[in-house]
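During the no-cost extension, the postdoctoral fellow (Dr. R.K.) reprocessed legacy sequence entries with the updated structure-token encoder. One reprocessed record is reproduced below for audit purposes.
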Amino acid sequence: MAVLSSSPKWPILPDYFHDWVLVDVETSGLRPGRDRVLSLAVLTLDGHGRQTGEFSTLLNPGCDPGPVHIHGLTSARLAGAPTFEEIAPQVGALLSSRVLVAHNAQFDYDFLAHEFARVRSWVPVSRRLCTLALNRLVGPPSPDLKLGTLAAHYGVRQERAHDARDDVRVLSGVLHGSLDAAEQLGLPLPLLTCPPRQDYKPYVPKTPCAYRNPGRLAAGGPLVQGMKVAITGDTQISREELVARSVAAGLNMMTSVSGQTSVVVTNDPGAASGKLRRATAEGVPLVDEPTYLRLLENVQPGQAKGTARIGTAGQRRTAETPGNATTAQATPAPNVPAQRTTAPTTPTAGADRSLAGRRVLVLGGTHQEAAAARARVVDLGASAAVNLSARVTDIVVLPGGESDRRMSRIASLGLRVHDADWLLAPAPAPIPAPAQSTAGNQPDTADVLVRGAVIDLPDADTAWTVAAAWGQHTTCEVDVVAFALDAHEQVAGDEDFVFYGAPEHPDGTVRLATDGPTEQAVTADLERLPLEVHRVVIAAAIDGTATFSDIGAIEITATGGIGAAPTARATLDAATTERTMILAEIYRRGDGWRLRAVGQGYDHGLADLARGYGVDVAE
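Re-encoded structure tokens follow.
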């Protein structure tokens, strides 16, 4: 592990010189737009880390304050506080032209964005920095990455957790220590562009249909609650009224057509609309508006959906291999071409684990050579890093790696550098001790998963997050997405496809977060997932014509709770021609859930992958 200074200094690198505005909010719940800000604290720093201003206040949200046992803010205590509208100009002036900093920054930013939207304004911030994401890159030797734990690691006194004013003071110290550690490692800061937006609206969820899809409308048969209905073309009554009547009758109104669509309503079946072309290709029945209105008068009862309440499962790793009838297997999406990557592998009994506990970064080589080296690293019991961090213990330099821009930093950190032959017969020296901290030096206890390996998720009542990260110097755009699939490996509706354009499922059970230019994460609330969701598939797709030979490996980590220590990690390489890769899947197993590291790549793009799972993607 890299030895970092135990007495943090404010960085001097020009790339770290910004005017900062540190923010912490306490809220009535977890859903921006639906829930409200109850308490806000703001602290401003100049480029040298000197405090230039501060502001804190309680806020009267005009609603139930939510979990009082967490934040201690009762309705009586908030009754005399100002509204956000009253303090918005002062807060806006503090935010303006500064980099916003928060721990789990997307949460604070989204709440502020919705609060400003309520007063017909927007957050005057163009960039933000998440200290949680920054410390995932730094990799400090702390038990986890929660704010209080990092405060102890960086020597910052925390007095009152979940108090916005104290939390933002603690955040200032954590930022100080984090920037110093990042500078010692030569890390570019994970600054995320967030240009001012005026399109944030109060949370108005699409109400998920309460009934299971009974299938296609039979000729001469009735409509049944749960049927998926799409409308195309002009209608005699307003589209809004037609949709409202249908929803009230228990039908699932869709904005697109797929193989799961029950019926398409159209008054012009000869039109050349995309929905009608898809309906013809899939054999979906068509009805005109008068017929549909008559059917709406007598919709038959459907089968109600259920909601899962899962017990706790075990937490030890299992190996699920092809041909074992007692294990669940990953099922490629229908209509998706066969995978190009190698078959799943699992550790063999008595395998050489001589690098157990180490973290190895591979530099240089072709994509195939680097992928083979990373696979060998994992076979030897180590984890394969994709970026330089404080937890990296060894560097393997392949041809061309000696010119990597990080080599001078690696030398200054005193890390051991090896050539490719070292992986054939490694003779590791003792792992160097990391920087001392009041939190103690905690080893990385995450299970290292090879492709195809599976673990039981120990806390099924926890929201589990699978984060994906890739090389910080990557110039290609990578999109992480998720599909909530039924027993037939299909989405029940397009809303079950979570991506950058729709980053949250309407019921909030699956969410996408962007924490930096080279990191995105999917969170699944397993306890609240509907019973018909059997699997959540998480994938990465490269925008444009680039392939994974341009990106390199993607590392995934699974954590149960914000800032928690990783339960498992895997480093996945696709083939040189592939543009889409299934990273992982979370799936039901008896009364619990399991996580599988997949690493299954395809040559096609995201649109084809989505169509294979039943999502209708417009060209």
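The chain has a mean pLDDT of 86. The chain has 14 helices and 27 strands. The remaining legacy entries will be reprocessed before the final report is submitted.
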